[in-house]
Amino acid sequence: MTAVPTETLAAVLRSADGQFDVEKVAIDAPAANEVLVRVVAAGMCHTDSLARAIGNFPIVPGHEGAGVVEAIGSAVTSLRPGDHVVMSFDSCGICAACHSGRPYHCAEFELLNFGNRRAAAHLADGKGVANRWFGQSSFAGYALAGERNAVKIPDHVDLRLAGPLGCGIMTGAGSVMNVMQLRSGDSIAVFGAGAVGLAAVMAAKLSGAGEIVAVDIHENRRALALELGADRVVDPAAGDELAVQVVGNGAPFDFSLDTTARAEVMSAATEVIGRPGLAVLVGAGFEPLTLAPASLAGKAVAYAYLGHANPQVFLPRLISLWQRGMFPFDRLVTSFPLADINQAEVASAAGSAIKPVLMMEGQ
């Protein structure tokens, strides 16, 4: 018997400069290794804007979804209908990195998360729509996810808040806890106090950092950074060269994190660290970074996907910290109904909403 496609509302993007259209789509039944998730909420991340640059239209973006498993494929063994899940990035499961528990280094990462052109959903006119963005395309009432990138969470965790753990929050926290492995007394400068940067500030505070400095152009974000653990904040527009402002009268930093992907800011992130020092870059963008080799003497620069986190292990850890009041990422969230997705995107770009989360109730 052929499974009947699931009809739902989804936010469809048709062009690089167009708005989202919220319309009906029909989603195929899950393949053998997939699950169908009724999405409760999905965070909006800057990485979703890359769907505009990459193309592959029409497409349903969204890669921070949380919801309830409605159906499972024939080969799925770790999930069942009714399970609550957070959806994260996709990985192949068969390469050497995946076998060693490092799915963020998956040999097929870019293909699976940015370039998967499979259209497992269709518009009202029958035309296919790409719905495998980061293995989920969760700007919709229902989404297909792989068994590997659907992380089971306790039923009592609020699904309206949990979605951002799957990418932005995980990236910021993981950059500090996994990539840097920041220790008590270490210092860190965070460039960009959006959701990723503020998650890094919280993780650095949790890890016992000696000094935390947050840099952002928005006053509201700088204020929140201070509340969440930063010792000092910097307004890039205040005057002096950025690296000079950040270091101030103190010593260079042990670590820096750039979330902006802007060349001049990434350069500053390498300038403010000492010897030895590590600058971690995580921003989603295309600007090249040019450095004189000698400027990196005693220093290291790394570009890290998703905070080098294995979602099946790291997300439960973050949830536990949050429930104990040690990692209040919920303070970053501003909720929008799916119908207001275009307003949410504008608010995110303007800095007034740090982590927009789209609510799918009734979709």
TrEMBL record:
* SUPFAM superfamilies, per database record: GroES-like, NAD(P)-binding Rossmann-fold domains
Sorted keywords for this record are: Metal-binding, Oxidoreductase, Zinc
Q: Which Gene3D superfamilies match?
A: Medium-chain alcohol dehydrogenases, catalytic domain, NAD(P)-binding Rossmann-like Domain
What is an example of a Pfam family matching this protein? ADH_N
Q: Which GO terms describe its molecular function?
A: oxidoreductase activity; zinc ion binding
Q: Which SMART domains match?
A: PKS_ER (SM00829)
Q: Which residues form the Enoyl reductase (ER) domain?
A: 18-358
Per the record, the domain of life is: Bacteria
Cofactor(s) this protein requires: Zn(2+)
Q: Does the keyword Ribosomal protein apply?
A: no
Q: Which family does it belong to?
A: Belongs to the zinc-containing alcohol dehydrogenase family.
Question: What is this protein called in UniProt?
Answer: Alcohol dehydrogenase catalytic domain-containing protein
Q: Which organism is it from?
A: Amycolatopsis pithecellobii
Q: What is the lineage of its organism?
A: Bacteria, Bacillati, Actinomycetota, Actinomycetes, Pseudonocardiales
